[in-house]
Amino acid sequence: MNNERDELSRRQIERLQTEIESLRGGHRNIYHRNYNEFFAHAKQIGQVFRESRAIPHGERQRLWEEFSTLCDSVRQEQSRNFQSRANNSRLKKEMIEPDIREAYYWAKGANSISDLREAERRLSGITEKIKDGWDGFTGTTDFFESISGNNGKLTREDRDYLWEKWREAKTAVRERREWLSELHYDRMRGVAGDCLSRAHQDPRAAKEKIKRANAEMKQNPMNTIQYSEIRRMLDEAWEFASQTASDRHQEWRRRMESHVERWSELHEKNEDVIAMLEQQIEECEDMEANARTEDFAETVRGWIEEKLEKIRNIRRTNEALEEKIESVKDKLSG
Question: Nearest Cα to 18, choosing from 52, 50, 53, 45?
Fold first, then answer.
């Protein structure tokens, strides 16, 4: 019976010794140890210890101390490696963040499309730097960091932080592009409007100005809708400037008559709205007269005042329309 127990003890000791040696030398490559695999294996060995009841106490204690010492050593190694990686990641982050900040301020202060392109070029280069390794840096940086053991890997926290800053800079580019588009649109709308005016007065000068405006449009960013609107105005000005004097006059009359027709229709619609509001006021006055409480009567009087104010505003608009209609009619009849 003792021989059987001794044989079982021997097998259990050999198994534990083999597992410990496998744990010691395994779960690693030339570069690093896989700590998740190591500690998963260690957990399995702990179970083997619990199942190995035939081993004498002294031998079990020796194996357990060997196993525990190995695990403690690897935990310390993991902690050192984690701290080293965190320090290396922080170093890389500190090298990249100023580049993002510079691109951000470049975008914020951009006054031309070339400035925006420069900001975007810088941001594009930064994406390479955020990746693992030293791509995007100088060869000197790559060399010295690599020989010092810094593999250029960022921690998740540092990578997320840099991407967030990168996105902020990218947003600054987009917002500045929109701002420049609106700025250039306002300017080019004024230029195109002047081209239209000149087309009536001095067609030759208008064409020269249109040519300069076309060249200027290529240098100034605008969105598709804005660009199409300016393009339409310049094309209209060019077409008008290319007409004969008689054609231009007929085109001018057609446009003026179209304005009068549109303003007259708007005037008529406004009068219909006034009539509707006046009818509503009469109904409100009846409600006020029959109100059961002073609070409700006061509320109805507020409605009446709002409608009266709308009527006053519409009448002011109609007065302005009447002046414009009369002015154009005088020019057409002159």
Answer: 45
Query: 163 and 174 in contact (C-beta within 8 Å)?
Result: no
Measuring CA to CA, which residue among 17, 8, 6 is closest to residue 52?
Answer: 8
Contact indicator for 20, 45 with CB cutoff of 8 Å: yes
**pLDDT by residue for the chain (334 residues), tens digit each?**
567 778 888 888 899 899 899 988 888 877 678 888 988 999 999 898 898 888 888 888 998 999 888 888 888 887 777 777 888 888 888 888 899 999 888 888 888 888 888 889 989 888 888 876 556 565 544 434 444 455 668 888 988 999 999 999 999 999 998 888 888 888 888 999 898 888 878 888 888 998 999 888 887 778 888 889 999 989 988 888 887 667 767 877 888 888 899 999 999 999 999 999 999 999 889 888 888 888 888 988 999 999 899 999 999 999 999 998 998 888 888 6
Q: Residue 151 corresponds to which tokens in the numbers above?
A: 């593999």
Whether residue 176 contacts residue 116, with contact meaning beta carbons closer than 8 Å, is answered with yes
pTM for the complete prediction? 0.50
Q: How far apart are CA 55 and CA 6, in angstroms?
A: 8
Beta carbons of 130 and 97 less than 8 angstroms apart = no
Identify the CATH number of the domain defined by range 87-178. Answer: 1.20.58
Beta carbons within 8 Å of 196's beta carbon, 6+ residues apart: 233, 236, 237, 240
DSSP 8-state class, residue 244: -
CB 181 within 8 A of CB 223: yes
Residue 28's SS3 state is strand
Q: How far apart are CA 186 and CA 252, in angstroms?
A: 25
Rg of the chain over Cα atoms, rounded to whole angstroms, equals: 41
- 264, two tokens: 């007259």
In whole angstroms, what is the distance from residue 226 CA to residue 26 CA? 66
Cα gap 93→161, rounded to integer Å: 9
Contact between 123 and 166 under an 8 Å Cβ cutoff? The reply is: yes
